[in-house]
Amino acid sequence: MSNWIKNEDNISNVVISSRIRLARNLIDYPFPNKLKKEEAEEIMKKIKETIINGNTVLKDEFKFYKMDELDEIERKIMVENHLISMDLANNKNAGVLIKNDETVSIMINEEDHLRIQTLFSGFKLDEAWDIADKIDDILEENLNYTFDEKLGYLTSCPTNVGTGLRASIMIHLPALVELGYINGVLNAVNQIGLAVRGIYGEGSGYFGNIYQISNQLTLGRDEKEIIGNIIGISKQIIEKELSSREILKNRLGPKLEDRFFRSLGILKNARLIDSKEAMNLLSNIKLGIEMGYIEGFTTRDIDSLMIQIQPAYQFRLYNSTNSVQRDMNRAKFIREKLSI
């Protein structure tokens, strides 16, 4: 189980996780897409020494990983656990500092020299921001950021100029999808300047009825305004999802309960299953738990399982050589997890 998932949230199980990301760059260096290898190494060394070798409260809490010292599966597992981006995983001149409890990762030489990410289970954007802000302050005391008095923090992508802040939630919306309301909700979100992405960010699919919602622009707005906006919109979406669940319950009656337990029965007995089908069935089980139909599992158990069934994690466990063997091993893994 990813450590960040273990943190329980009693406000709403609709929100799987909350994430804050701060983009920063160092003066005297070009942006990462123009960095020479030796410059990339210098930046990694500076940031690593600030955290691990510096005289800060953080020095014993982080471990450093260089992308070119990890194999492809190790890098992909970090992506599946939402600890790094795919762009970082594919950059051999990059590295990451990961906090022992995996709630913080500091990506080095991704799209920007420095990306501070805090990741918390549940609806905890304020808490995630508080930690990210404190780490940013510690780093800024020891590093020279590129900053313009009028524009704010300068970043590789113009949409991040300003605060450099991206606040996002990962949210489970099966009832809105089932009732056909999801497109209207997502269109409304886009119209007010927010972005909607799949489970692994930009370019990824909407598997398991899971969506990521975040701000698109940071210029001209302060951090509290950005976070407050995301929180306010999220609460409206949560309310719409919860009311849609009641509509489903009243409309489908015992058919809804049957769907939940059929999904559980399939996963407890399947001998072959791909990750997409498994995600959709786990989404049904997660909803059944949250609506009080299914007992014996927590919603965080299912959140963790959704990560553990992904391709890289499964390859590390079983070293499957073809798709049939991989799907057989995934089915076996799920059966074992759901039989506990």
TrEMBL record:
**Motif annotated as RDXXRA motif of the pArg binding pocket involved in allosteric regulation, chain positions:** 326-331
Which major enzyme category is it? transferase
Q: Cite the entry's keywords alphabetically.
A: Allosteric enzyme, ATP-binding, Kinase, Nucleotide-binding, Transferase
Q: Where does ATP bind?
A: 17-21, 82, 115, 166-170, 197-202
- PROSITE patterns with a match to the protein in the record: PHOSPHAGEN_KINASE, PHOSPHAGEN_KINASE_C
Catalytic activity from the UniProt record = L-arginyl-[protein] + ATP = N(omega)-phospho-L-arginyl-[protein] + ADP + H(+)
Checking Gene3D superfamilies in the record gives: Glutamine synthetase/guanido kinase, catalytic domain
SUPFAM superfamilies in alphabetical order:
Glutamine synthetase/guanido kinase (SSF55931)
Q: Which InterPro entries match?
A: Arg_Kinase (IPR023660), ATP-guanido_PTrfase (IPR000749), ATP-guanido_PTrfase_AS (IPR022415), ATP-guanido_PTrfase_cat (IPR022414), Gln_synth/guanido_kin_cat_dom (IPR014746)
Which top-rank group of organisms is this from? Bacteria
Q: Name one GO cellular component term.
A: extracellular space
* Activity control: Appears to be allosterically activated by the binding of pArg-containing polypeptides to the pArg-binding pocket localized in the C-terminal domain of McsB.
What is one Gene Ontology biological process annotated in the Swiss-Prot or TrEMBL record?
phosphocreatine biosynthetic process
Q: Name the family the entry cites.
A: Belongs to the ATP:guanido phosphotransferase family.
Q: What does this protein do?
A: Catalyzes the specific phosphorylation of arginine residues in proteins.
Official protein name in the record: Protein-arginine kinase
**What organism is the protein native to?**
Tepidibacter formicigenes DSM 15518
